[in-house]
Write a structure and sequence with these properties.
heterodimer, A: alpha/beta, 15 helices, 40% helix, B: alpha+beta, Arc Repressor Mutant, subunit A, three-stranded antiparallel β-sheet
Chain lengths: 480, 486
């Protein structure tokens, strides 16, 4: 029996001819077949295509011409363009839409012989923290099917959690990779803003959006990041910085003592789940015991980050989503009488409630009378938040905090409680607002057996150090 | 009815917004072609269509062209350029927003010098010039119930040149637009064709009583597809507003369309709600930073501008102002003349040739200067033949010039020989013929000597007839007079 939890073991098995890519694909298809009806993860499974590609890649392997990711099977969040495949952002408004081009990340992965096994559900247009805002219904947490997987990349998280594929690409705007990773007991990375090209990612809030990675192993994540990151001619916001060989350096930090900050209130803020506070206390102790310096860092601006995030992200979303108008593609209301009713009915019927709420919010904060009070002010505070966070990294290598204030809640539990739902992103939004890389790793389990994630934030473009440190933390935990 | 007297109590205030399509190969933020006149929806891509996941990519050529215009107007060039989104819904606007510049236009300030037909010179200040993208076109065809959308034009780069409200008549607006068009053509950044819509103009028009210091409500006039129509629209609209005020009415502050067939403006049927465009910084594009070095590199490739050429034609070539103005009106004509002047020193003669026979030739055939068949070398040869008295201007214009146009590959001298029109200036050849003619008409000679000096022309004609027109008229005339007066 092959160990399907890491790419290293899959690669070894392929190398030793103990398995074939076709067999690997069959394995995942079988898991999907078994679990998808309950968990509602995949919107589409590319069965035939995956099998055909597996045969091609097996041939390449036998000829020694296969790419670095031969044998890796992944899923794509329904916001990433994949030529000739459906793309809907889990929204009715993109009903029947197929992308005519590949996202840059897809191009780069396919060139290394990844197999994309299907597209997975998410919160509509990546807006949500529970994966309940979807035209295709809620995705369920594989370990606790009555609970949410988190969001918005819930489908991506569960596809990895449930072993339906090895790795998944999601998107993280305010926590949409880290929060579901925490709820689903896997690793989720949000890289520095601009580290990975956004070309081919459906925009939610362009100045926050990043493509992120879900996996069970840091090593798999590092290798994947190494391949998809880097400059891109078609995305002027993608960084020109060279991409380190992340996968080569994940063991680089095992012994040297580090300066680590922790979010001070994560230990005593009573709005945080006590078991999560305990996880923080335990982690701090463990790190200190290993000789690292671990110190509390106050972050007074934390209370402002959620409002700032919701003002700026909804402002951007309100215009990013203007293109979904029923004129050129996607859903068009059959009841439209004239141009105005075509717009109104199409968008009223095509968008879900949360998306409409954010479009309205964003339109409001950009309107002439409120622009300065909201948008301009929020932009200023955003800059302050970024400056404060960068300051922390003048003195510390990493900053640890909980990924979420609470564990996975029950499906329907927060229905109608918009603000409480937004609070689920309290700890993930700061790194998004500042554009810094952050990762969530499974660090503990609650008494109910619910996963608890630890978030590690690093200075910008320090993914290399972040991944190595995270790998070290994983080893520490295993060593216990 | 508004009498001249009432009208003269008012002052007309005009500000213009000119949109000029840039002559770039590809669109402002996409690689699609900008070629005009293609089949609908062929110059498009996923980006132009606003497909999800696409991102704009700025075409640096647009920056270069916008800076050229700014330098030509003496504007201040903005160093840190942010793009903004202007949000509104319309079927020909695929993304639901236009990428433009709101707070950091590429150029601030600058001026355009204009001259009115009566010779009055005036300077119109420019407020700003910014870069943006064009929208597509909505087509309402007669036999179609649906509105059709053509997105070939969507994303074509534009610069918008906004003037201060400093024009005081339709005539000044006409002169301003003519100057703008001439500039963009000289800079080769826009073809300036208002009929095809590659240059468009909206006019903000208001009136006020002379002596008033604040501006009254203005109306915006659209849909004028020629410079002449801009003038007509402003004149009509100003009178209309004066009439409203004279009848104690109010001007609404609305957008009005110009109807070229009636010469009138009419209110657009729109809802009374104010459009809030919700401008905000475009997060998909990095700000563009313009360095001193870049500005200098653009300045270095700046072609001669019409006013510079006018000064050169007057100062270096000694032309009268009238000639200089006529020659610079069209860029290709001015450049042709400038090139011609490097091959001849008879500058005024060259000017006369271009303003006379060359212009007539082009006008008769409605050809642009660039299609004129003769090289400047050939023209210089032609001028040299006349200047050296080898052929008369009349012969050159009537016979040699048309023949050269037919066979531009033949040199002017060879063609003149072929036509046998080289002038004879040799006294020894002409004098015997004069003697012969005078001998033929003794009574006319007697009449001349008794005072009928007008007979000189008759003698000239006879000599010309004998020499088949080849005798140099100057030499002939001089010799005839000497003989008759002897």
């Amino acid at each position: 029996m092959i160990d399907f939890s890491s790419f290293a073991s899959i690669r070894t098995a392929l190398h030793d001819k103990k398995t074939t890519v076709s067999a690997i694909v069959s394995h995942y298809l079988q898991v999907i077949e078994q679990k998808n009806s309950e968990l509602n993860v995949f919107l589409e499974v590319y069965t035939q295509e995956a099998q055909n590609r597996a045969l091609e890649i097996d041939k390449k392997l036998s000829e020694g011409t296969a790419g670095r990711l031969a044998g890796m099977v992944i899923s794509l969040k329904d916001v990433i363009c994949h030529k000739g495949h459906g793309l809907q952002a889990s929204s009715k408004i993109l009903e029947g839409f197929e992308s005519q081009f590949d996202a840059t990340v897809v191009t780069r992965l396919l060139a290394e012989d990844v197999i994309i096994i299907g597209r997975v559900g998410c919160d509509e247009f990546a807006m949500g923290s529970s994966n309940e805002n979807s035209a295709f219904g809620a995705v369920r947490n594989a370990d606790h099917p009555d609970r949410v997987p988190g969001g918005s990349s819930g489908g991506s998280a569960v596809s990895v959690q449930a072993g339906m594929c090895l790795l998944s690409l999601g998107s993280d705007t305010g926590g949409s990779v880290r929060q579901p990773a925490a709820f689903c007991n896997i690793i989720g990375l949000k890289p520095t803003y601009g580290r990975i090209s956004r070309y081919g990612l459906i925009a939610y809030a362009s100045s926050f959006d990043t493509i992120g990675i879900f996996s069970k192993q840091v090593e798999d994540m590092a290798l994947t990041l190494e391949i998809i990151a880097g400059a891109d001619d078609v995305d002027s916001t993608a960084s020109q910085k060279t991409v380190p060989a992340y996968s080569q350096s994940i063991d680089a930090m095992d012994k040297s003592p580090r300066k680590i900050a922790y979010l001070a209130r994560a230990l005593d803020d009573e709005s945080i789940n006590p078991e999560i506070r305990q996880m923080m206390a335990d982690t701090i102790e463990t790190l200190k015991a290993q000789g690292h310096s671990v110190e509390p860092v106050d972050f007074q601006l934390l209370d402002y980050t959620l409002p700032v995030y919701y003002i700026l992200s909804t402002a951007e979303a309100s215009t990013n989503l203007s293109r979904f108008d029923g004129i050129r593609y996607g859903y068009r209301s059959p009841d439209a009488q004239d141009l105005e009713s075509l717009y109104k009915k199409t968008r009223t019927e095509g968008f879900g409630q949360e998306v409409k709420r954010r479009i309205m919010l964003g339109t409001f904060v950009l309107s002439a009378d409120y622009y300065d009070a909201y948008f301009t002010k929020a932009q200023k505070v955003r800059r302050l938040i970024r400056e404060k966070m960068l300051e922390v990294f003048k003195n510390y290598d990493f900053w640890i905090m909980p990924t979420t204030p609470d564990t996975a809640f029950k499906i329907g539990e927060l229905k109608g409680e918009t603000v409480n739902m937004y609070l689920a992103d309290l700890f993930t939004v700061p790194a998004s607002t500042a554009g810094l890389p952050a990762i969530s790793i499974p660090q503990a389990k609650s008494s109910e057996g619910l996963a608890i994630g630890l978030q590690v934030v690093a200075n910008e473009f320090e993914e290399e150090q972040l991944l190595a440190f995270t790998n070290y933390l994983q080893k520490l935990k295993k060593g216990k | 009815m508004i009498t001249e007297e009432i009208r003269n109590r008012y002052e007309i205030i005009v500000g213009l917004e000119v949109h000029a399509q840039m002559l770039t190969q590809s669109k402002a933020y996409a690689t699609d072609s900008t070629e005009y006149g293609q089949m609908p929806n062929t110059n498009i891509s996923v980006l132009t269509l606003g497909h999800p996941g696409t991102l704009p990519r700025f075409n640096k050529k647009v920056l270069e062209y916008a800076i050229l215009m700014g330098l030509a107007c003496g504007s201040k060039i903005t160093r840190y350029n942010i793009f903004d989104r202007k949000n509104y819904f319309y079927p020909d606007l695929p993304k639901g927003y236009q990428i433009t510049q709101d707070k950091t236009p590429i150029c601030w300030g600058g001026k355009i010098a204009i001259e009115l037909p009566d010779g009055t010179a005036k300077t119109i200040n420019i407020t700003r010039i910014h870069m943006e993208e064009d929208a597509g076109k909505s087509l309402h065809l007669a036999e179609e119930t649906d509105t059709l959308v053509d997105l070939n034009r969507a994303g074509v780069p534009l610069i918008e040149i906004v003037s201060e409200p400093e024009m005081r008549s339709g005539e000044e607006a006409y002169a301003y637009l003519t100057e703008i068009r001439r500039l963009v053509r000289y800079l080769n950044i826009c073809d300036g064709n208002m009929e095809e819509g590659s240059m468009r103009c909206d006019a903000n028009v208001s009136v006020r009583k002379k002596g008033e210091t604040t501006l009254r409500t203005r109306n915006e006039i659209k849909n004028m597809n020629s410079i002449r129509n801009v003038q007509r629209a402003i004149e009509f609209e100003a009178l209309r507003q004066i009439e409203i005020y004279e009848n104690q009415g109010t001007v609404k502050g609305e957008t009005r369309m110009f109807d070229a067939t009636t010469g009138e403006t009419y209110a657009m049927r729109t809802k009374e709600t104010l459009n809030d465009y919700r401008y905000f910084p475009e997060p998909d594009l990095q700000p563009v930073v313009v360095t001193d070095e870049y500005i200098e590199s653009v300045r270095a490739q700046m072609p001669s501008l019409p006013n510079e050429l006018k000064a050169k034609f007057m100062q270096t070539f000694g032309l009268p102002e009238y000639d200089a103005k006529v020659l610079i009106d069209d860029k290709d004509t001015a450049l042709y003349f400038e090139a011609l002047c490097s091959q001849t020193t008879a500058f005024k003669a060259a000017s006369n040739w271009i303003m006379g026979p060359v212009k007539s030739y082009l006008n008769e055939r409605t050809l642009p200067m660039q299609d004129f068949p003769l090289s400047t070398k050939r023209m210089a040869e032609l001028i040299a033949l006349v200047e050296s008295n080898q052929i008369s201007f009349a012969k050159a214009a009537q016979d040699l010039f048309p023949a050269l146009l037919e066979s531009p590959e033949i040199s002017a001298l060879d063609m003149a020989k072929k036509l046998d029109i080289i002038q004879d200036s040799n006294q020894d050849n002409i004098l015997p013929i004069i003697t012969e003619v005078l001998a033929q008409y003794p009574d006319k000679v007697a009449a001349y000597k008794s005072g009928k000096k007008g007979l000189l022309g008759m003698f000239m004609g006879e000599v010309m007839k004998q020499t088949k027109g080849k005798a140099d008229p100057k030499v002939t005339s001089k010799l005839l007079q000497e003989q008759l007066d002897a």
